[in-house]
Design brief:
The structure is a homodimer of 250-residue chains. With 250 residues, chain A is of the alpha+beta class. The first copy, chain A, is built from ten helices and eight strands. Chain A has two domains: 63 residues, Winged helix-like DNA-binding domain superfamily/Winged helix DNA-binding domain (Arc Repressor Mutant, subunit A, Orthogonal Bundle); 169 residues, 2-Layer Sandwich (Beta-Lactamase), CATH 3.30.450. In chain A, the strands form two sheets. The first copy, chain A, has a five-stranded antiparallel sheet with strand order 5-4-8-7-6, with helices on both faces. Chain B binds a DNA duplex (30 and 30 nucleotides) through helix 3.
Chain lengths: 250, 250
Amino acid sequence: MSQTVRRALSIIEFFAERPRSLGEIAEHLGVHKSTALRLLQTLERGGFARSVDGRYTVGFRMVAIAHQAVEHLELHPVAHPHLVRLGDRYGHTVHLAQLVDDEIIYVAKVDGRGALKMRSRVGRAVNPHTSGVGKAILAHLDEPSRDRFLARLTYQRHTATSITTPAAFRQELARIAERGWAEDDGEFEDFVNCVAAPVRDARGRVVAAASITALRALAPLDQLREHLPQLTETCAAISRDLGWTGDQRP
Amino acid sequence: MSQTVRRALSIIEFFAERPRSLGEIAEHLGVHKSTALRLLQTLERGGFARSVDGRYTVGFRMVAIAHQAVEHLELHPVAHPHLVRLGDRYGHTVHLAQLVDDEIIYVAKVDGRGALKMRSRVGRAVNPHTSGVGKAILAHLDEPSRDRFLARLTYQRHTATSITTPAAFRQELARIAERGWAEDDGEFEDFVNCVAAPVRDARGRVVAAASITALRALAPLDQLREHLPQLTETCAAISRDLGWTGDQRP
DNA sequence: AGCAGTGGTTGCAACACTTGCAACAGATGG
DNA sequence: CCATCTGTTGCAAGTGTTGCAACCACTGCT
């Protein structure tokens, strides 16, 4: 492990929260300001940092690389048009989360027409046991992968409806697998609910899930459920674009 | 400047193009594979790299930070809903580019409904002399800033219609400033054209521009011009949301 | 005007950290 | 079963990093 690189990444994490001055950064790292400055200059020359009146923040080279990376995730370009159509139709927020190496990551997001924005962010990991997309994916995963995943969960409680025991969660997953879709009844934030459905790749394996999310005050769960036909059709369309013929369901 | 950090950034640039193996990366840097591995492990632990079957690529921590950074650019959250509405209306690609420290950067993009995607990418710098947004911003910039900008331009020719001399470009900017909007008549790629209009901040200064872009075969320039009222209205709406009252126009 | 508090810069000496090496485990594939 | 690859480790050598001190330039305050 490289100390210097670790420090550089730590700087990026630090000024990503909000722009930071040289002094703040040096103090945060616990190094002399000249040391911090030399690291910052290297980041700046690479486009990973930029300075604006004495404060440093994320550089645009880094933004461009990250966007490119998402577009390279084979799922994103295929799914995005479908998600936009779904978002248009109801004006609610639409998410797509993908299973990628033992993590479930938001890879696309279409903001709803409401004034409030969901706090989710492309690139961030999903909370598996308190999200519609997380449960939709886990419920349809093959046995060994699911077990591996579940073993790492902590079942932290976020709201009154959060599922907090392995047994209850397995039961919930079984129910989801049976009916083919999942919901989040305010399990992460009590004023937010959603419905979610799985997306399959060419071999029929569940690799992602899409969801329609809304404030409970704006669209309670029973109203979101009415959109399930369109949601599952959207997921089916994405799956078809990925090459799934509906033949296999392992 | 830190050699180690420079190497780390170079690695990121390298595997951003496409996933790379340890051997490739070591060779690219001209270092021993154990050295490359140690840097990679540091990046991986920070979430800036991830490995998938022996090849490395961009990690999700980096994606999340970059998305956060764009959302923190005060312009993006304000403008995005307006751009989406504009994109919906005609089905063409909509861009927003922002002037930020001597560069013009794409900060939002709404893909059109066509099968082809524009090659632009959020986070990337705009080509100022061959793009609608670039010209729209430059034309409405204050004298000193514009001169500083123009001094750095190279006027590279991309297509037959590219403007390649400072004199012709200044003339074009004057015309744009007068009528209040710009166009790109296949000046970067001959099969793509667009119309663009400026966005002003609370103090009346032009800080960004929005454009409607389409394949010439799908929507030639004279057809795009018909959308100008909606485009300028969109830009005015964004400007209003930024606090512009229309009083000042420096 | 003077002062205190910033950010930014530089040369240098000391040494901590990085580097290359070599050797090996383990996986993969012709 | 050999060839080739990634991944890992301990170690010696020395290069690159670090802290320091002193400095300039700028800002805002008194």
